[in-house]
Amino acid sequence: MDTKEMQAMLAAKMAEPPPTRGDPEAYKPRLQPYYRFLDNAWREVVNTPHLEAGSRFSSFYLLSWNIDVLVPFGEPRMHVAIDHLEALLSTIGDSLAVIFFQEMDSSDIQQLQSTPWIQSRFYMTDASNSNWQSPYYGTTTLVDRRLQIQTVFRVPWVTKFERDGLFVDIGVSSDDGSPAGHAVRLCNTHLESLVADPPVRPGQLQDAAEWMQKPNVLAAVLAGDLNAIEPFDRTLHSENGLKDVYLEFGGREDSDDGYTWGIQVPEWMKQRFGSSRMDKILYCGDVTPRSFRRIGMGVKVEDPEIVKQMREQDALEWASDHFGVMGEMVLGGGTKLSLSRL
C-alpha cells in the first residue's frame, strides 16, 4: 500500500465512531513466535535457549521510536534511522539493549532483517506483518540475543486504529544465579491517535497496566508513542500505578526539552497542533531508571538525489516526525537478567 492509500485508509478509520469493548475473547493475549538470524535466514526460535550461568547484567537500555508510516520515502528514511540507532548503540559498549518500533510497514521489516548488526545482535519479534492487528502497519521489537526470552504475546486494545500491546517476557535470576521464577515484562505500544469522545487511550493504558502488574512480573517497562495530546494524558500513568521516566528525572510538561512531536513536521502542522510529548517510557515494579534522553533529533536523509526527489514532492527529509526515547533501566534487589547460551 502506498502512502496515499494509507492516508485514505486512516481517513476512513477516523470517520468511524469511537470503539467500544466487545467480546472478552477478542482481548485475550495471543502468543506469537520470535526469530533469530541463523544460517543466512531469519528462523523461528523453537526451543528456548539454555540458561547461561553467572549473569552480570542488572540493567538494560530501552530505545523506542515511531518511524512514521504516513509520509513517503519510507525506505531512505528507515535507512538513516537504522544508521542512527547503530551509532547510539556504539555508545553503550556491551550493555544489553532492546529496541521498540512503532508504525512499521512490511518494507521496514525487510530493512531490519537485512541489516548486518541487527542480524548478529538481536532477536526480532516479527518476520512479517502476520501478527499485526492491521495488515498495513504495526509494532515490532528487537531483543538483545543474550537475553532469555520466556514468551512473546500481543494483547489487542479496544481500538478503531488496530492498536495493541506487544509484550516480551525476559527471564531473571536471583543473586545466587538460580531462576527467580519471575519475569521482566516489556510492552511496546502505540496508543490511539487523535481525540475521541469518549476518550480511548485511558482504557488502553489501563489494560496495559494490568498486564504489567501481574503476580509473576517482577518489573515492567512500557514505551512507545502514547499519543499524549490531551490534558487527561498527563496523569494516566499515575492513575494506573506507573511512573514516567522523564518526569522522574525532573522533566516538566510543556517544556521544549520534553517534546517528541511537533518539531520535525510541516509548518502547517506546527501551527495547527503545536508540540507535544507523545513518546514516553513508563515503568512499575522493582526497577528504576538510570538515564533518559530523546533520540532521532535532526536525523535526516542526506543522499542528494533522494533529497531532491523528496523536495520535489514537498516531503521533509527527517527520518521521522517523532523523536524517539532512550533510557537505561536497572533492576533492584540483586536481581540479574537471565542470559541465554547462544
From TrEMBL:
Top-level taxon of origin: Eukaryota
Record-annotated Endonuclease/exonuclease/phosphatase domain positions: 63-322
Cofactor: Mg(2+); Mn(2+)
Gene3D superfamilies named among the record's database cross-references: Endonuclease/exonuclease/phosphatase
Cellular localisation: Nucleus, PML body
Keyword tags: DNA damage, DNA repair, Hydrolase, Magnesium, Metal-binding, Nuclease, Nucleus
GO biological process: one example: double-strand break repair
Any GO molecular function: metal ion binding
CDD domains in alphabetical order: TDP2
GO cellular component, one term: cytoplasm
Protein name (database record): Endonuclease/exonuclease/phosphatase domain-containing protein
Record organism: Eremomyces bilateralis CBS 781.70
